[in-house]
Amino acid sequence: MVLVGKGPWLDDDEQKAWRSYLLMHKTLETHMERHLQREYGLSKSDFEILVNLSESKTGRMRAFELGRATQWEKSRMSHHLARMEKRGLIQKVACDSRYPEIAITAEGMAAIEACAPAHAARIREFFVDVFGPDRLAVLGEVSDEIVDTIRKHEGNDCPPEVTGNC
């Protein structure tokens, strides 16, 4: 493990910033999920799958592609897709491959179209407008740098059981 900065422990300012970020992330995520659930009957997981399928050119993706896009484990994806299929939001469609494609149904498309405008408006109200354009641009840059740093770590010295590549 490489220790950068003052040592392994966060100083008071670093700890405060980290905990503020965690609280903001959890509060925002929980609030957004409650709106999705109570107003549209969708979990954030349903929403994530439906967004990915609705944004694909064909409205279909392979389960492993959805897993890559969502960073979910294979078993979680399988179980969640089964629940969504029972609710009529997605369907499995046979294709040339051994495994079926996952397709968004008309009901799934209607669900995402119904909730997306309100969801986007809340993101604007609680996130975009609070940051403003300049700070939002900085957040985007820093977020990309953090993801790149994690990807490098995963590619170099991160154990496979942590990266999910086992």
UniProtKB/TrEMBL annotation:
BP GO terms, sorted: response to stress
A GO term, aspect molecular function: DNA-binding transcription factor activity
Superkingdom, natural source: Bacteria
InterPro entries (UniProt xref): HTH_MarR-typ, MarR/SlyA-like, WH-like_DNA-bd_sf, WH_DNA-bd_sf
Coiled-coil residues: none
Residues of the HTH marR-type domain: 35-135
Protein name: MarR family transcriptional regulator
Source organism of this protein record: Kribbella capetownensis
